[in-house]
Design goal:
The chain is of the alpha+beta class. It is built from five helices and 18 strands. The chain folds into four domains: 38 residues, no CATH class; 86 residues, Jelly Rolls; 73 residues, no CATH class; 65 residues, no CATH class. A six-stranded mixed beta sheet has the order 1-2-3-7-8-5, with no helix packed on it. The chain has a five-stranded antiparallel beta sheet with strand order 9-10-11-12-13, with no helix packed on it. Strands 15-17-18-14-16 form a five-stranded antiparallel beta sheet, with no helix packed on it. The N and C termini lie far apart (95 Å). This is Mll0443 protein.
């Protein structure tokens, strides 16, 4: 009876195969067992028995260099626990360490997101002795030096450009982060500044519907995006500035944003003429109700004001405006229902 291997490639003795003292040996069983051993010794050794599971060098190499399950990025990514030599790293979290593995262990990593790899002269030795900001599709081979130390022995960027810790046109901003922007524009990404090594990296999103910008990061202090937003306007925002995208004033747009001469144009006049009575930015002659002593600059809720006329009379049916108003003159409580009880107010909200 031959000695079978189980599903894991482990050989075991057949049932009732042990010799018994002072009992004649059956030559057929004896010869069959040794024939089986000889056959197994000349066959491909399974990986569980210290072999490669193949009869050729290329087959053995293929069996040993398998793809493992994806691993999410984190401060420490334990490559010793990888289920294969080739691993895809997902996510965008900064990686500071690959954990501890025996010296000589290698892993081939494919990056599915944009994330920083933190350079360390001992534990994370990277080309150029600087951080690397990955791009989607970048591939790096990392070799363990033992004791939690790793060296990147090769790195290939997805677009073939040189490795850089600064802005390159190949780097793209992660769609998951962009989705956190409540304003709908990629400049205003809400996140926090990095807590470790200094970075200056950028993101050029492909496609007409995306923004092109760089991220400026003072680690642990302040970070923001700067670039051309999805409406083709120069803006700054995101990260430490919150989920906001603020337009930048320059010679091409200052007339519409800052120059007071703009407010003398027909565009402004038509806009002002179109405002409804009582709208924010409009003025009205109002009286305090109940009567109050007010000075220029005092703010009053519209519910405590009534539309009036130059005589200051506030009738029982007078209408109260909405919003909040700022007094532009004086009123006196003693002058209720007289001209002294009314003044011009500006609606401010």
């Amino acid at each position: 009876m031959p000695m079978p291997r189980d599903g894991s490639g482990v050989m075991s003795w057949p049932p009732n195969g042990n010799a018994v003292t002072a009992t004649p040996i059956d030559s057929s069983k004896y010869n069959a067992r040794f024939a089986d051993l000889l056959s197994d010794l000349n066959a491909a050794r399974p990986i569980t028995a210290g072999g490669t599971g193949a009869n050729t060098a290329i087959g053995g190499n293929d069996n040993l260099n398998t793809a493992g399950a994806n691993i999410a990025s984190a401060s420490t990514v334990n490559l010793a626990s990888a289920t294969g030599v080739a691993v895809t790293i997902t996510g965008v979290a900064r990686i500071n360490s690959f954990g501890t593995a025996a010296a000589g262990v290698e892993r081939v990593l494919t990056f599915a997101g944009v994330l920083p790899l933190t350079y360390n002269a001992t534990s994370m030795i990277l080309p150029g002795a600087a951080d690397i900001v990955t791009a989607v599709g970048d591939v790096g081979t990392f070799r363990s030096l033992g004791g939690g130390n790793w060296r990147c022995v090769s790195y290939e960027t997805a677009d073939g450009q040189p490795i850089s810790s600064t802005f390159t046109s190949s780097q793209t901003f992660n769609a998951g982060l962009a989705a956190n922007n409540s304003t709908g524009q990629a400049i205003g990404v809400l996140a926090g500044p990095a807590a470790t090594a200094t970075l200056f990296y950028g993101h050029a999103l492909a496609g007409a519907g995306n923004a092109a910008f760089i991220t400026l990061d003072r680690p642990g202090s302040f970070a923001a995006n700067f670039g051309i937003d999805t409406d083709n306007k120069w803006k700054v925002g995101g990260f430490s500035m919150g989920a906001n995208a603020y337009e930048i004033v320059h010679m091409g747009n200052y007339t519409t944003l800052l120059d007071p001469r703009y407010f003398q144009t027909a565009n402004f006049a038509s806009t002002l003429a179109g405002l409804a009575v009582g709208a924010v930015g409009t003025s009205a002659l109002l009286g305090a109700n109940p009567a109050a002593d007010l000075s220029p600059g005092n703010t009053v809720a519209g519910s405590n004001l009534r539309f009036t006329h130059a005589g200051g009379f506030v009738g029982s049916g007078a209408t109260a405006p909405s919003g909040t108003w700022r007094a532009m003159g004086n009123t006196t409580s003693a002058g209720f229902n007289t001209s002294a009880g009314a003044t011009v107010f500006l609606r401010i909200s």
